[in-house]
Amino acid sequence: MNQHTISILILDDESFMHKLLGRMLANLGFASISACDNGHAALELIDSTSDSPNLILLDLNMPEMDGLEFVRRLVERCYSGSLILISGEDERMQQAAEKLASAHKITVLGHLHKPASPEGLAALIGKWMPPRQSEPRATKKIYDADEVRAAINNGELVNYYQPKVETSTGRVVGVETLLRWRHPQDGMVFPDQFIYVAEAHGLIDDLTRVVLTGALAQARVWLETGLMLQVAVNLSMDNLVSLDFLDLVVGLAARAGVPAQMMELEVTETRLMEDLRIPLEILTRLRLKRFRLSIDDFGTGNSSLAQLRDLPFDELKIDQSFVHGACESDKLRAMFNSSLELAKQLGMKAVAEGVEDQADWNFVRQAGCDIAQGYFIARPMPSADLPDWIQSWQKKFSL
Ligand code: C2E
Ligand code: MG
Ligand code: MG
Predict the structure, then answer these.
(1) At 4, is the pLDDT very low, low, confident or very high (cuts 50, 70, 90)?
(2) To which CATH superfamily is domain 145-398 assigned?
(3) Is the sign of the CA dihedral 13, 17, 22, 28 positive or negative?
């Protein structure tokens, strides 16, 4: 980041904040700083120059146009810079404002509580980097049923595996199977672009059969090489509408020579089921046969207490939206801790999803969450990369 080419606007109705923030920014090496004391003046400034500011420090509470209205005006102008929100509002209010701005696709670096501290400001600006590409993604395209069917039949679907580690020891205890489509023209296509198509067009059983077959063959190889890993596979609720699915899973595992205990089935409630009797029967009987059951994305609308009440889950995966950043947010931490407590009281293993950085990792370890999964530990990878990754991870932990 080159401080000299970056322009920053301070928008706050209190002039002492202009001085305070201006000085902090100057100390951080920024030279191009302007200030306005109301939204109209700021919009005028933005409209009159060809380059809008790269960063706006925005006060939420201003007498005429409040900060949220200003955000809406920025959206109308297709503002492509970043925002830092500043106010005396409480944490939950600030987070709500942040969520709102993010929902408008404006990059919010974070919020600062008034009077902002130089360290707090420096930390937020330090996070300011070009948006990180999680994995090289193909541009979003809508695929139709024929294309997804062809992908299934032509072997274009491949399993990636993301490690899960025990937080107390760093030991790699398992992997989650995550499906990728190696599209011959479009490159790597991610599940959010084709799972729903498969579900809507009666292709989900074929798709799941491919994923399971691959994961079981891989589990067998790991078993033979002495690698003791739990292998998790995501199921769709649409897989659970016919009892044939039970026979399919049991049959595939037996044929692959993989003990049921090694397999874990992750479920979310992707849509409301009118009749829960068959899904309940399938999952309960799979559990009776010693397959492990995991409730995925716990805490989101898709994953509810009712499911926990009705099914004998072995594992609860706390959704990533309650994990990443929980150490900095009272609200997220409260939700994280209550999910963790629930898992403990019900005798389930708790998994933190979306452990993205060192702070998340420290937090989940210290909170006593059993297992962690996320980019900080490793991204999903092809099976061939796993042995080397385990070696380097173990070295890092000097296990
Ligand atoms: P999920 O089961 O909750 O899987 C976790 C998702 O979070 C994966 O996305 C994973 O790549 C991503 N992830 C992992 N660590 C991090 C992190 O630190 N930060 C962030 N931001 N994300 C992280 P992916 O692979 O794109 O899969 C998305 C969803 O698609 C999965 O969510 C799962 O519900 C579904 N899915 C994936 N594979 C299958 C499959 O074989 N069958 C079915 N039915 N659904 C699948
Ligand atoms: Mg999952
Ligand atoms: Mg999840």
Answers:
(1) confident
(2) EAL domain (3.20.20.450)
(3) negative
